[in-house]
Every structure is written in structure tokens, then in C-alpha cells.
Design brief:
Blueprint: E1 7-8, E2 13-21, E3 25-32, E4 35-42, E5 51-56, H1 59-89, H2 93-102, E6 121-124, H3 142-152, H4 163-170, H5 174-177, H6 181-186, H7 196-203, H8 211-218, H9 223-231, H10 233-236, H11 239-254, H12 258-262, H13 265-278
Parallel strand pairs: 1-6
Antiparallel strand pairs: 2-3, 3-4, 4-5, 5-6
Helix pairs in contact: 1-3, 4-7, 8-11, 9-13, 11-13
Length: 282
């Protein structure tokens, strides 16, 4: 008699990308303990609470899944808009279908990997604190782009609670992280997000390559993100990074906009300047 798979808490699971959706994800990719698994819902989509099974994929299966999600991302950005245009312009469904086929606008059908083994775990979304996916945050094509990025960079968070990604990030060399600095810095926009802590810890040791990505925030219109950057990473980063950002830090500290004052970014900037002076940075 086969033993039942272990029951996991949904808060340990992070949605990577969904294949099927019915008032929530039905199947797709999810991350657990830093690894990507296939999840599939048990029972009927209308049942509450929902229970899911997790399956470990082989390397070829995982590559196949990431490849299809990337294919759908490209389709959603290029061919799907053309289909919507045809739907708006042509009333006859038969003629629409003929043109869609003729123009090669359809997406290749894929129904997920073949699951033959025993599930590695199961979880339920019954708990009210369960937050394994962001109902408002998963929209095409952003969700599929995130899956494509994860296939290349497993240290990228899939949501603000993804501490497993933060731990993977600690072990990655600078040259592997560098192409994804904009994405990583974007997760510092709110210092209350749990994932911001390990990201700050890792980025604080990076050199001048980090500065241009921080300057994008300091010169943006997002005053809240400026505050969290100045009160977080900017206090802990390498001196050379602070020095390269100094003109913009001084501007926020001494001649802030009303928005920067409202978010207390000016006070945070003055704290950074105090550190700069105490350490005698040039």
C-alpha cells in the first residue's frame, strides 16, 4: 500500500506560472523549498477548499514546461492581439477561424507533462492565511515572462514571500546576478515585503555595477520606493555605490519634492549622507 504524500502548508508554496485557471490556478509550475514542481488540483475546480498535488519533474520535463510558457508569452504579446483584431473586424466565425489558421496565429496546444510517479506532496488553500498566489498579480503576459526569467535565474522571487529565492540568491556570483539587477531592485520597493531582506543582504556586497540600477529609482517618480531604498540598501551598500549616487542623494536631502517629503525620503537621504560623512567616503 502506497503511503500518502506529506501534507504541506500553502504558505510554503509560491506560484510560478499556471497552465489552467478556473477562479484560481488549476495546474502549472510552483516553487517549494527552492525547487520548481508541477502542481495539479485534485477533484473538481468548483470544490472548496481546493487541494493540490506536487510532482517533481525530470530535467527534460522542466525544460519542456519552461519552453512552452515562453512560447505562450511570445504568442500573447504578438499573435494574440492580431486574433483580437480579427474578432473585432470579422463577424463570421468560420471566416475568422480560417484567417487565424492561414496566418498561423494559433498557439501550439500543450496539456502539461505526463505525470506517472507518486506525488511529492499535497497542500490545500483552506487556511485563510494561505497566500501561495497573488490573485490580482497574475496576468498575461507578465506571469509567463516571470516563468521564462525563472528558468534562467532561479534566484528571482515569484512573490514577496519567496524567501527560498532569497536564499538561492546568497550563493550566486555577481556576474550571474548582474543581468537581473533591475528585477531584484524592484523587490525593494516596499521594505515590508519579507523577500526584501535577503535581497538587501546579497546586493549590499556588490560594487559599482549596482549604482545605475539604484539611480533609476532615485530619479523616478516613485517616492515611496526612494524612501525604502535610502533607508535600506543605501545604508548598507559598498561605499563606491553611495559615492556614485551622491548627487541624487544630496538633491533629495536638500531640495526634495513635496512627494519625497511626504514619504520621508528626504530624511532618509540625510541619514545616508551622515553615514557618508562618518565613513569619510569620497
Amino acid at each position: 500500500m502506497n503511503a500518502l504524500p506529506p501534507t504541506l502548508h500553502a504558505c510554503e508554496i509560491s506560484l510560478v506560472c499556471w497552465l489552467d485557471w478556473y477562479d484560481g490556478p488549476v495546474s502549472g509550475l510552483a516553487r517549494w523549498k527552492g525547487e520548481v514542481f508541477w502542481f495539479a488540483m485534485e477533484g473538481d475546480a468548483g470544490e472548496e477548499p481546493r487541494t493540490y498535488q506536487l510532482f517533481k519533474l525530470t530535467k527534460p520535463q522542466l525544460e519542456e514546461a519552461f519552453a512552452w510558457f515562453e512560447e505562450k508569452r511570445v504568442w500573447s504579446e504578438t499573435r494574440a492581439p492580431q486574433i483580437r483584431t480579427l474578432v473585432a473586424q470579422i463577424e463570421d466565425a468560420t471566416e475568422r477561424g480560417r484567417l487565424i489558421e492561414e496566418k498561423g496565429l494559433t498557439l501550439r496546444a500543450w496539456h502539461g507533462p505526463e505525470l506517472t510517479g507518486t506525488p511529492d506532496g499535497r497542500f490545500s488553500d483552506e487556511a485563510i492565511e494561505s497566500r501561495w498566489f497573488d490573485r490580482e498579480g497574475w496576468r498575461l503576459p507578465e506571469d509567463y515572462r516571470r516563468a521564462a526569467d525563472l528558468s534562467k535565474a532561479p534566484f528571482l522571487p515569484v512573490d514577496k514571500f519567496d524567501l527560498a529565492a532569497g536564499e538561492i540568491l546568497q550563493e550566486c556570483p555577481d556576474d550571474e546576478i548582474a543581468p537581473f539587477l533591475d528585477e531584484l531592485v524592484s523587490w525593494l520597493a516596499d521594505g515590508n515585503w519579507p523577500v526584501s531582506t535577503p535581497i538587501i543582504r546579497r546586493l549590499s556586497s556588490m560594487g559599482e555595477v549596482l549604482a545605475p540600477h539604484l539611480l533609476k529609482v532615485l530619479t523616478s517618480q516613485d517616492d515611496c520606493a526612494k524612501y525604502f531604498l535610502l533607508s535600506g540598501l543605501m545604508l548598507k551598500c559598498e561605499p563606491v555605490v553611495r559615492t556614485l549616487c551622491l548627487p541624487d542623494i544630496e538633491r533629495i536631502a536638500h531640495t526634495p519634492t513635496s512627494g519625497e517629503q511626504a514619504e520621508k525620503a528626504d530624511a532618509a537621504a540625510r541619514d545616508v549622507l551622515a553615514i557618508h560623512r562618518v565613513l569619510g567616503e569620497k
